Amino acid sequence: MRYVCIVCGYIYDPAHGDPVAGIPPGTAFEDLPDSWVCPECAASKEMFEPVKEGE
């Protein structure tokens, strides 16, 4: 499941991970470290919501 940052609109896609932060592809959002922040705006994980697929 993908997650969207409600601050800036960045979408975390587990298929891609976050290479800049050293997060490998295949890492579920729930498995990201609590210290992980949005690579676009530095918002915390709490600022992300699941993407409703198909909308």
Explain how this protein is built.
The chain is mostly beta strands and 55 residues long. It contains no helices and three strands. Strands 2-1-3 form a three-stranded antiparallel β-sheet, with no helix packed on it. A hairpin with a 5-residue loop joins strand 1 (3-5) and strand 2. It is globular, with a radius of gyration of 10 Å. The two termini are 14 Å apart.
Query: Tally of extended strands?
Result: 3
Question: N- to C-terminal separation?
Answer: 14 Å
Which H/E pattern describes the elements?
EEE
Which percent bin holds the helix content?
under 10%
- Secondary structure class reads mainly beta
* Strand ordering within the main sheet: 2-1-3
Given as residue ranges, the uncertain stretches (5+ residues, pLDDT < 50) are: none
- Given the structure, what is the number of helices? 0
Strand content: 5-15%
Concise overview:
The chain is an all-beta fold. The chain has no helices and 3 strands.
